[in-house]
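Readers outside the structure-tokenisation community will struggle with the description of the input data as it stands. I therefore recommend that a typical entry be quoted early in the introduction. An entry of this sort, consisting of the sequence and the corresponding backbone structure tokens, reads as follows:
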Amino acid sequence: MQFNTLARLLCSPRLLLSSWQTGQLASAQCSGLHITTSLNFAEAVPLKPKRPMNAYIRYVQGVRSSLASANPKATPMEIAKLAAVKWQSLDQTSKTKYEEEYKREQAVWLQKNAKYLSQLTDAQKEEIKLERQQRNEGKIKREQKRLLKELGRPKRPINGYLRFCQQNKPVLGLSKQDNKMQMKNLGLQWRQLTDAEKEPYNKEAEADMKRYQEEMKKWEDKMLSTENVEAVRKKNVLLPPSPASSMAKKGGIPMPRINPAPAQKQKKSPTSTTTRP
């Protein structure tokens, strides 16, 4: 658990998040540049106090530079493994020292965080909640993409227009603006082509799509046989009907349904009553 946490920290720039936000705000204000929505949000909401590192991460931060110097060809993941080994062999007295430092900073952080939360308005809390939800959704999408790649999901082929752009793109390594203009020109060229000129690109795309669909069917069958149902697109999963639904269709049992709300009885109006002679 500790090693996985350290690996994520070493492989991402999240440790520099606070300094990056501060520097970005300062540079944007001094240069007069347009500040993005996220930076405006950072101005509106008080700066959140940074949570202190636990004892293990605190120790690794201290030995990481020496490990990197002693192993210049090692990757961040390998450095993390070496640090984990050193932590396991560390004596209990030294570990206790790091634990006490963490507890002292944790107590200070709890006070600062309570003050920070008390300063937030309801709108700011809702904005923070939305931002956290978006980060979580992005994390889930990245995890799903990584899982599908590991499971060998076939890659969807490009269409005829993108094939035309791929084969006729004249210049590589352009700036973002120049590349945007180049793609705009390619789109104009594509619209000026006749159907006969577009046909070779579209035929290649259709043939690749058929191959892709066959590969996807085999891959999805493989995923279902290995109980990796979560990796299969729901709209393509053709599971057999349940016994209850099969019997219901044959008239054996009624299909389950949601009962509508009972209608309210209409009260008879006194004027609508008639007297019998």
